[in-house]
Amino acid sequence: MFKRHVHIFGVCFFILFSFLPAYNILIHASKSDDVWYNKKILFNFDGLISGVATVLSVFRITPYGEKVLLGKEGWMFLGDEFYKTLTHAQRGVADQEIKKNAVYIYDALLAWDAYFKARGIPFFKVVIIPDKHTVYPEFLPDWFKLAPQSLYDYLLAHDKGRLFIDLKKYILLKKSKGRHFLYFKTDSHWNTWGGAIAARHITDVMAMQGMKNLKKLPAELFDPVGNMESQDGDLVRLARIKNKESEAALFSHYAMDNRLITQVNPLTNESHDVSIQETVAVDHDPIVVTSDRALNKKKLIWMRDSFGETIKVPLSLMFSDVLQWKQTERFNIQLFEKLVQEWQADGILYTVVERHLSSALMQSCPPVNTLALPKMLHFVSNARFLRSTELTEGEKSKTGISFDVLYQFKDPLTPCADHYLMIDLPQDAKQKGTLIFSWEGDTYEEEKGLELSHRKVVVELSAGKQLVHLGAVVGWRGYQNIKKLKLRVKIPIGSEIELPESLWIAKIPFTNL
After folding, report:
1. Rounded Cα gap, residues 431 and 54, in angstroms
2. Pairing assessment for the beta strands 464-469 and 419-425 based on DSSP bridges
3. 212 exposed, middle or buried (CB, 10 Å; 0-12, 13-18, 19+)?
4. Which end is more exposed in the chain, N or C (fewer Cβ atoms within 10 Å of the end residue's Cβ)?
5. CA 133 to CA 67: how far, in whole Å?
């Protein structure tokens, strides 16, 4: 019986394999005269696989389920292979790991906000672009249920309007009042109309709540003027489905603006003039877009992803200089620090799609460097020496001496963004050391029970008075009632270091730095 099945399978496979070259010749003969007889083409299974995938899609079945989720009425959604999009959507912050990540993300953004303000950039806003399943859950399969509170929802509720521009609420409002789709059915991105609606809200909020003397773009710039056809979205390609119908989406007045702008790579200083519609941010390479006819003579640093393609034109119409940096998984923090210092922007905007909330910038810490003392310094508290402890053999460094020093506040300290730690080492100190700084205090009520491992920062010590910007340390502002400071000091073997009896906490207005 088993041999009979093997024989049947062999015959079927032989027939299929014999038919395949003829099928590929028919498909490719019309494309090019010199391709159809290529032996690499003759036994190519791509066309056959695509045909099977297309037939199966009628029944909402796909062999590429990890890449694409097939929904109702031809709607397609990005699968779990990309950033575990669907898993996170189903679990939400009920999952402790996701909630822990949310706490870290928000602490990191608060630290970045303090870091920018300390460098003379008062405006920093974050825009989370909602995933397609967040906006159109009604087209998901019946078995797929979204979590009651997503990571996105948690961050917005936690923020209370300080850092985030709430795009989700605005898009859902426009969806409920309009009859045009805002996202493509067969692509993971929004369409031109969804991008236009988002661009209007972002620029309006920036003008009303953001930078000083920033003029708002005229409303008619975002009015629809026609339809744009689109075909073969990225989800169609991932699912290997062919012959999908094209989709039409509205486009706005600004999509017809073809003024020339200058595009410069700040790393190479290469520049060229292009149409404002053609500007493209190269992955991992910053690009400066300069427009002499922009509404405001202001500079914006814009960290963005692929969703920014439909927002780039309005931002260049609004700001004379926009430094675009397209981010994915990699983030060059040293280059970013250099650009922030040298470019002297009026504001920083970070747009990121919901599924990329765990991207590099969200997970990174601002550079924490020691600073010289400014002219104005207001001390708010000090922590007195409590005890020191030499580390156990298992904790000791092989290249130096390590010990813990504990300081205690007389009264618990409430953390602020403009708090600085002053360390005063003797001027005759010959050896530099490394300091790992951490603290003990109460977490916010809703975060209790979470193991937060980011309550520390590493700085290099040198002689004299130095300041460490606590506000730019991830987690500092996520605590209340700081009671103790712990310094883990590492110095080279054979050297000595004299630590002060007290550590002073200073408050410095950002305008005085």
Report:
1. 69
2. antiparallel
3. exposed
4. N
5. 15
What letter would DSSP give residue 36? T
Residues 149-191 pLDDT 10s: 999 999 998 888 889 999 999 999 999 998 899 999 999 999 9
**Residues 482 and 415: beta-carbon distance below 8 Å:** yes
Task: Find, among 178, 232, 201, the residue nearest to 310 by Cα.
Answer: 201
Cα Dmax for the chain: 93
Which residues make Cβ contacts (< 8 Å) with residue 44, sequence separation at least 6? 20, 24
- Is the separation of the CB atoms in 432 and 478 below 8 Å? no
Contacts of 367 (CB under 8 A, 6+ apart): 115, 333, 334, 337, 472
Structure tokens at 132: 């397609």
Closest CA to 334 of 369, 291, 384, 307: 369
pLDDT of residue 21: 62
Output DSSP code: residue 222: G
Measure Cα distances from 511 to 119, 121, 508 in Å: 9, 10, 8
List of domains in the chain: 85-363 (no CATH), 376-447+454-512 (2.60.120)
Instruction: Report how far apart the first and last C-alpha atoms of the chain are (Å, whole number).
Output: 86
Measured from the Cβ of residue 227, the count of other Cβ atoms closer than 10 Å reads: 14
C-alpha 282, offset from chain centre: 16
225-259 tens-digit pLDDT: 888 877 678 888 887 787 667 788 888 989 989 89
CB proximity list for 335: less than 8 A, separation 6 or greater: 267, 286
Residue pair 323/286 in contact by the 8 Å Cβ criterion: yes
Q: What is the mean pLDDT of residues 46-65?
A: 64
What percentage of the chain exceeds 90 in pLDDT?
A: 34
R_g (Cα) of the chain, nearest Å: 28
pLDDT tens digits along 352-374: 999 988 765 666 778 776 666 66
Per-residue b or e along 114-142, where b marks 16 or more CB atoms closer than 10 Å to that residue's CB: bbbbbbebebbbbbbbbbbbbbbeebbee
Determine how β-strand 319-326 pairs with β-strand 296-304. Answer: parallel
Single-letter residue type at 301: I
Q: Which two tokens stand for residue 424?
A: 């005063």
Helix, strand, coil % over all residues of the chain, rounded to 5: 35, 30, 35
pLDDT at 280 over 80: no
153: closest CA among 130, 137, 174? Answer: 130
Q: Please, are residues 167 and 205 in contact by the beta-carbon 8 Å criterion?
A: no
